[in-house]
Design goal:
With about 130 residues, this protein is of the alpha+beta class. The protein has one domain: START domain (Alpha-D-Glucose-1,6-Bisphosphate, Chain A, domain 4). It has 3 helices and 7 strands; from the N terminus they run βααββββββα. It has a 7-stranded antiparallel β-sheet. It is globular. The termini are far apart. This is ATPase. It comes from Deminuibacter soli.
């Protein structure tokens, strides 16, 4: 099995960090764009798609309105996916930074999947 590597995606967003953070860190927000059904209990989120078996991820760390890092329970200990909210210095624009892990040959496909998901998020945000 080849080792997964981290990759980063960045998307400019037209909304406040606090509104964006709600969509990235709460079951109701994530259910709007990331998965069909989202539940949370004791910092473990359950994500379901198309009525399938839930995939679980624990929250590793978070800072309100700044970032949240999840780790799939089935993934390696060093792997995670992260949503980070940054502001550009000059224009003060909000940037959504997504960090995730994938095998080298799968990064392009995984990036497309994230783009599809983020497009849904932007639609919900009115972007």
């Amino acid at each position: 099995m080849s080792k997964k590597q981290i990759y980063t995606l960045e998307y400019p967003v037209r909304c406040s960090p606090s509104i964006l953070y709600e969509f990235l860190s709460t079951p109701a927000g994530l259910q709007e764009w990331f998965a069909d059904k989202v539940d949370e209990r004791d910092h473990v989120f359950s994500f379901s798609w198309n009525g399938g078996v839930p995939d679980k991820a624990e929250v590793l760390e978070q800072e309100v309105d700044k970032f949240i890092r999840y780790r799939w329970l089935h993934a390696g200990k060093d792997e995670y996916f992260e949503f980070r909210i940054e502001k550009t210095e000059i224009t003060n624009q909000t940037i959504l930074v997504i960090k995730d892990f994938a095998e080298k040959g799968e990064i392009k496909d995984q990036s497309r999947l994230w783009e599809y998901q983020v497009k849904d998020l932007f639609h919900r945000l009115g972007n």
